[in-house]
């Protein structure tokens, strides 16, 4: 006699109905996870793209301001004693628009029509020292989509001395 034992009665295992039911449950879960993965991927991509663009446009403006002479009009001229420009509201002479393709209109349009980003900058005297200007540049996206309501802004700060 061999050492094998045979079960008496019915065989163990799952019925076809139980396997189909478990498969349906797993499919529903997989479809839900796949949907979340698609949303997370697109949001991550668009957030990264926006963050890169806003940082690049802020850096471009900061480089332009840092290359200008200390008493240049775009840095508030030579008579800045407190504050010139704003980073919360567009102030004449201290903001511009960036189009979606990265171009900047030759003159600042009266409305933001067609613009994708708003760049604002502020010039301040650093700690009362009239030989040091505190420069802040903020870039914010103007076009916000339903999937990208919290589009990132970029803020750069630098000191310029005479």
Write structural notes for this entry:
There is one protein chain. Helices cover 32% and strands 25% of the residues. With 162 residues, the chain is of the alpha+beta class. It has one domain. Strands 1, 2, 3, 4 and 5 form a 5-stranded antiparallel sheet that branches. Strand 3 (115-126) and strand 4 (129-141) form a beta hairpin. The N and C termini lie far apart (103 Å).
User: How many structural domains does the protein architecture include?
Assistant: 1
Shape, per Cα inertia axes: elongated
Please give the number of β-strands: 5
Sheet/helix structural class: alpha+beta
Order of helices and strands: HEEEEE
SS field, number of helical segments: 1
